[in-house]
Amino acid sequence: MDTHKKLRGILYVLSFVIGVVAVVLFFMYSIKSDGYFGDLGETTGTLLGISLSLEMALFLGVYSIKKKLIPQSIKKYVVLVIKYLRFYHRAIGAFAVGILLLHYAFTFSLKNLFSFHRMTGYTTSLLVVTVIAIGLLLKINTKSMYKLHYTIAFIAIIPFLLHIIS
Q: What are the C-alpha distances in Å from 113 to residues 18, 37, 95, 100, 118?
């Protein structure tokens, strides 16, 4: 088996395990004790931001190539990066879902449930879940589905940035 396929498989398994741990933490600890895990919420939020940035880098790379925004001298390197980002796109997305669940488990609190910070987090999560659902439906493979997929992803950047700075 190819090394990259093994790595992608490991990323899927890791995503599943993280998701299960997050759900268990949420129901066993967070929901009962208004659990706040300190810096773990911020750490998982940072990991989530990095994984979502990798997902967006795929679109930006493809867009830059199509619109000829990349100089010829580095185009082959950008194409190589795009190749790997495309190969790992779903696995990174699965990892992001696991980290999203873990982030939610670490930061869940009944206090300030409707604060600006929490509302921007909820909005970002809802948009990301919508992007994932559309991405899973992309087997239909229509141009309008792709446009909807990356348009909502770009819209999600706004509450995400507001969440970070609040």
A: 24, 16, 26, 17, 7
Residue 162's CB is within 10 A of a number of other CB atoms, namely 16
pLDDT at 26: 80
Give pLDDT tens digits for 42-74: 889 899 999 999 999 998 998 898 898 888 999
Backbone angles phi, psi at 77, to 5 degrees: -75, -40
Token pair in block for residue 138: 């992309």
Structural domain boundaries, residue 51: 3-165
Residues lower than pLDDT 70 in the chain: 1, 30-38, 138-141
Looking up tokens 């299960």 gives 20
| Cα-Cα-Cα-Cα dihedral sign, residues 127, 132, 136, 139 | positive
Q: Which of 103, 96, 101 is nearest to 41 (CA)?
A: 103
